[in-house]
């Protein structure tokens, strides 16, 4: 079953998209950030939260919002088998590596987006929800962003792969994260999945805070050369749930450290003493990762910057630096 959209609504979206700006100046290495109370929307801290940035794979949060919306409207089901087009199969990594003519279920695509941040799976979803046209779906994403109050966000594709006109802000992404929690709590658990099996492979989640920061249970990473290292996180400690956004960090390590500091400060400001990070003994981490792996410390906790297949489960899945041009 493929969802359909009214002609009038689509024309409205096309007109809206025509007014999107051209390429914006970016500030790679300069961090934009925001922390809000997820329940009230109150801002606890911000820094250049309205500066327009490239979202990279944080784009997939809106792709998932649109997917959950279609599921709730019963225009698609989790078991729908979506065709893989040539266009989807040729998307740049990170990807599942699917061949044209094969199929991917809606639920597999959801899991591929929240764990591997697979660009080919995002494109398959975009084409399926957009009536065979990813560009049409991106226009619908922008329309939905405006409905949610994301005034400075424009989408051009379903994955977040580079496009000079695909921009957002830290504030807009906090609006989207809060909308996902508010509008689709029944699907939020997908963001906390640590791994998922796909064709005899186990795909781990890229989210660095899962299994490391107590109460962290979801949202998304993103990276391109121009966007820098991006992260949206949600964590609950006690009765307080926070949403944090970090955009444009110069490295995974600085992005993760910044997010941890922001969340700690946010919980403190909310009257909730931050809980300690999940601890891994230094000697154990060195034995597992070897002398050639850099170790970063925060509050006496080892943060390993390179992946090791022999790492403890929580550390292996939550703290792996993605190097080069990898988009996640």
UniProtKB/TrEMBL annotation:
The keyword Methyltransferase does not apply. Keywords: Carboxypeptidase, Cell shape, Cell wall biogenesis/degradation, Hydrolase, Peptidoglycan synthesis, Protease, Signal. It comes from the Bacteria. Pfam families: Peptidase_S11. InterPro entries: Beta-lactam/transpept-like, Peptidase_S11, Peptidase_S11_N. Residues 32-250 form the Peptidase S11 D-alanyl-D-alanine carboxypeptidase A N-terminal domain. One of its GO terms (molecular function) is carboxypeptidase activity. Residues 1-25 form the signal peptide. The keyword Protease applies. Belongs to the peptidase S11 family. This is D-alanyl-D-alanine carboxypeptidase.
